[in-house]
């Protein structure tokens, strides 16, 4: 069974008020207030001096890799951006070389956008299952640099911050085991932020139902119901949209971990793993608790994964 052995994250110290971010892209004041007061965003973290390689190395360096490093067979960068550097620059290879993982097979997953991280966890388990060595490990990395206006602000959804996470995956293990996974792509909305106004409105109307549906599918895959889920560790997007999802699921807001949304914004595929670290620190998860991660990638891919802590 696939399990998370360890997880680390890097969140830059530099804070930028959401209003400052939005005004840089000529977002009018009424929309700024909407993001701040209704969507729930307050600030984002940005490290303008750091490259993508720096972000990945910062997260990887916080893992204890000395003992397991030689057994890391695969390193996957689950990213939202299809292109992150000009050829022949390879941030992933640079990051692996910097922390002593130059021997690992490296590749990126992008086509699920912000949901690529959950896809990578699932794929890591399948790759490790094909290995003969029970010591084999896979490392899933998340983190993107938002270097365009369309990457920094997703209309009515989120303001993007910069952060990264490193997730060490193994087979077996005594905690954070994957119990179920579901993903569904609504290809009709493949244009993402470049959809027509009519198509965008249609997507917003279907969003909550599509996300609730994939959450229920993941819990069913795990052989359980929503009553068995202690906590949802979400992607940090529009607080109002989450209220609609909770109503459809029939659960209260006390089971949704949104503490980091105002502080960090939406950090691409890193949100759920940063939220996992925070929930652990706050004592929100006890051994044996079942919890669920969610992600929605532009395109539009809806994903959910159930774990046992």
Automatic annotation (TrEMBL):
Record keyword Transferase present: yes
Location of the Beta-ketoacyl-[acyl-carrier-protein] synthase III C-terminal domain: 222-308
Keyword Isomerase: no
Keywords, comma-separated and alphabetical: Acyltransferase, Transferase
Top-level taxon in the UniProt lineage: Bacteria
Pfam families named among the record's database cross-references: ACP_syn_III_C (PF08541)
Protein name: 3-oxoacyl-[acyl-carrier-protein] synthase III C-terminal domain-containing protein
Organism: Nonomuraea insulae
């Amino acid at each position: 069974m696939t399990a998370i052995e360890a997880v680390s994250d890097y969140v830059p110290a530099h804070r930028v008020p959401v209003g400052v971010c939005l005004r840089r892209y000529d977002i009018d004041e009424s929309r700024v207030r909407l993001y701040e007061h209704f969507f729930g965003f307050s600030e984002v973290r940005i490290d303008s001096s750091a490259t993508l390689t720096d972000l990945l190395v910062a997260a990887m360096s916080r893992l204890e890799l000395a003992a397991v490093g030689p057994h890391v067979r695969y390193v996957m960068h689950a990213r939202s951006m299809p292109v992150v550097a000009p050829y022949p620059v390879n941030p992933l290879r640079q990051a692996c070389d910097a922390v002593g993982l130059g021997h690992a097979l490296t590749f990126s997953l992008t086509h699920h956008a912000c949901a690529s991280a959950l896809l990578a966890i699932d794929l890591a388990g399948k790759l490790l299952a094909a290995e003969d060595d029970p010591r084999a490990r896979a490392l899933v990395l998340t983190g993107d640099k938002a270097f365009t206006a369309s990457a920094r602000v997703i209309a009515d959804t989120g303001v993007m911050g910069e952060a990264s996470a490193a997730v060490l995956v193994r087979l077996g293990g005594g905690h954070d085991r994957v119990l179920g996974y579901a993903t569904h792509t609504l290809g009709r909305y493949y244009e993402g932020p470049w959809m027509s106004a009519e198509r965008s409105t249609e997507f917003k109307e279907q969003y909550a139902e599509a996300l609730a549906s994939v959450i229920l599918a993941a819990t069913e895959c795990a052989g359980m119901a929503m009553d068995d889920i202690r906590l949802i560790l979400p992607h940090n997007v529009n607080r109002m949209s989450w209220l609609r999802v909770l109503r459809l699921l029939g659960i209260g807001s006390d089971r949704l971990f949104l503490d980091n949304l105002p502080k960090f914004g939406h950090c691409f595929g890193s949100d759920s793993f940063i939220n996992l670290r925070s929930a652990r620190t706050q004592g929100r998860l006890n051994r044996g608790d079942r919890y669920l991660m969610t992600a929605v990638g532009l395109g539009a891919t809806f994903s959910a994964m159930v774990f046992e802590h």
